[in-house]
């Protein structure tokens, strides 16, 4: 599912405590435990509401990058590849949720977060792996933080590219580099990232979502208006470019970090998995939208399509200009929402080492340094398409592919791997896919970065 996700709600909640209802009477340990009946969630979400939450997390700026992804694969491999990526992403979400439910039943808990699921699996897994529990918690938490920081660095270059595109049109005699726009963004990003309470960011989230919706509508209007095939469209692009397609697709569709909070807060969590189920219904809509936008966006603009299709919109029309401004504003405000989770994770690990009287200063320094890192990364790779490919290959594939398959394998190792150990063979195949994605994605992205900027 895509740190396209949208990336807009993908990381709002990372650490959710177990919500187990405690009973005063004695509990029969031989009685089958139902986690769903032991969740104490003050405000549950309906099945339809959960569908829209999950859909919203998967539809974000990554959707605008899909035409560039199709450019790296060609129309035919892109159409097939987007379906395969969706199937693999959906399966990995499924096994993570199923494993979380199984370990909740075994440990008699109502629900677990992503990180806590991984920790419990290792804690109750094979004896020789139990000593790695602390490492697993650190690895998953830092992978979460990496997804957020990597994703927000993409946001910085996204905003900077949009600003350059807009201002170059109005002031053609004063054209500045994307790197300069990234540097200019540093101060406002640092200042506004100092907001430490999520409730104060809610209005910005609503406003950003409205802006993105209007941008999508305007983009679709220009894409399908007078649709004609560009002369340089490839049915099949060079195989050397395919890894960039995979990395971008994973970045756009992978929203696994928001899955557990959504499932944990459902009023009818049994509706999440299964057929049709919330997960399958959401991913079906997502893959259709991504395939349509990617296919027809590339069909119209061909090899000239940019990292965000909004950058290809006309520069002299009010509607197109409004769309570019709206998406820049939307991503600007979304940046703070995405920074909330990694700041929370990192601060929880740092505050115990800092004196209470320096906590405020410590928070300021942490947030300033983190924002600076995202801006420096954006300046180092000032190409939206290549940065998305690099971040997708490293961080999003790790969180969305590697961790779920390892967690399921460890959990099932002593509990049964299925007939002919099919779970082990299936996960070994998925591990190969992960290795191919991270190695080829990194190689292709870094090679192109070196060719372009060094």
Notes on the protein architecture:
- This protein has 454 residues and is mainly alpha-helical.
- The protein has a single domain (43-453), classed as Amino acid/polyamine transporter I, CATH 1.20.1740.
- The protein contains 15 helices and no strands.
- Helix 3 (66-73) packs across helix 11, helix 4 (75-107) packs antiparallel against helix 11 and helix 9 (242-253) crosses helix 14.
What topology does this entry show?
Blueprint: H1 47-58, H2 61-64, H3 66-73, H4 75-107, H5 114-123, H6 133-170, H7 178-192, H8 202-224, H9 242-253, H10 259-264, H11 278-301, H12 318-350, H13 359-380, H14 384-412, H15 422-453
Helix pairs in contact: 1-11, 3-4, 3-9, 3-11, 4-5, 4-9, 4-11, 4-14, 5-6, 5-14, 6-7, 6-12, 6-13, 6-14, 7-13, 8-12, 9-14, 9-15, 12-13, 14-15
Structure at a glance:
By secondary structure, the chain is mostly helical.
Key descriptive features of the protein:
454 residues; mainly alpha; Amino acid/polyamine transporter I; 0% strand; Amino acid transporter; AA_transpt_TM; membrane
Strand tally:
0
Q: Structural class, from secondary structure content?
A: mainly alpha
Top CATH class: Mainly Alpha
Uncertain stretches: 1-27
Distance between the termini: 33 Å
Q: Helix proportion of residues, in percent?
A: 55-70%
CATH architecture: Up-down Bundle
Strand content: under 5%
Radius of gyration: 22 Å
The CATH topology comes to: Amino acid/polyamine transporter I
């Amino acid at each position: 599912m895509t740190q396209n996700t949208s990336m807009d709600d993908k990381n709002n909640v990372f650490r959710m405590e177990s919500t187990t209802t405690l009973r005063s009477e004695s509990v029969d340990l031989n009685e089958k435990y139902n986690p769903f009946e032991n969740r104490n969630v003050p405000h549950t979400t309906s099945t339809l509401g959960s569908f829209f939450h999950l859909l919203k997390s998967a539809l974000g700026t990554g959707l605008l990058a899909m035409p560039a992804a199709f450019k790296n694969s060609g129309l035919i491999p892109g159409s097939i590849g987007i379906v395969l990526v969706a199937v693999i992403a959906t399966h990995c979400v499924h096994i993570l949720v199923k494993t979380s439910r199984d370990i909740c039943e075994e440990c008699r808990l109502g629900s677990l977060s992503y990180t806590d699921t991984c920790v419990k699996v290792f804690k109750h897994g094979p004896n020789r792996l139990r000593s790695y529990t602390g490492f697993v918690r650190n690895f998953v938490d830092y992978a979460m933080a990496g997804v957020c920081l990597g994703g927000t660095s993409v946001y910085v270059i996204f905003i900077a590219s949009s600003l350059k595109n807009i201002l170059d049109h109005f002031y053609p005699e004063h054209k500045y580099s994307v790197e300069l726009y990234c540097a200019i963004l540093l101060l406002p990003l640092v200042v506004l990232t100092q907001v430490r309470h999520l409730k104060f960011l809610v209005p910005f989230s609503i406003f950003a979502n409205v802006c993105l919706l209007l941008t999508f509508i305007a983009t679709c209007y220009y894409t399908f208006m007078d649709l004609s095939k560009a002369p340089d469209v490839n049915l099949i692009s060079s195989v050397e470019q395919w890894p960039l397609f995979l990395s971008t697709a994973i970045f756009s569709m992978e929203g696994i970090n928001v899955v557990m909070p959504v499932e944990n807060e459902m009023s009818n969590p049994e509706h999440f998995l299964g057929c049709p189920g919330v997960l399958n219904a959401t991913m079906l809509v997502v893959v259709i939208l991504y395939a349509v936008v990617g296919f027809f966006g590339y069909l119209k603009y061909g090899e000239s399509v940019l990292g965000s299709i909004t950058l290809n919109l006309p520069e002299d029309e009010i509607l197109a200009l409004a769309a570019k401004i709206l998406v820049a504003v939307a991503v600007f405000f979304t940046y703070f929402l995405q920074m909330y989770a990694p700041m929370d994770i990192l601060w929880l690990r740092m505050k115990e080492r800092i004196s209470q009287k320096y906590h405020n200063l410590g928070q300021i320094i942490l947030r300033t340094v983190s924002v600076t890192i995202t801006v420096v990364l954006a300046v180092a790779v000032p190409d939206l398409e290549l940065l998305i490919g690099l971040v997708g290959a490293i961080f999003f594939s790790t969180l969305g592919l590697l961790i779920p398959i390892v967690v399921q394998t460890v959990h099932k190792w002593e509990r049964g791997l299925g007939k002919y150990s099919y779970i082990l063979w299936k996960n070994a195949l998925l591990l190969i896919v992960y290795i191919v994605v991270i190695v080829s994605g990194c190689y292709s992205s870094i090679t192109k970065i070196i060719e372009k900027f060094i």
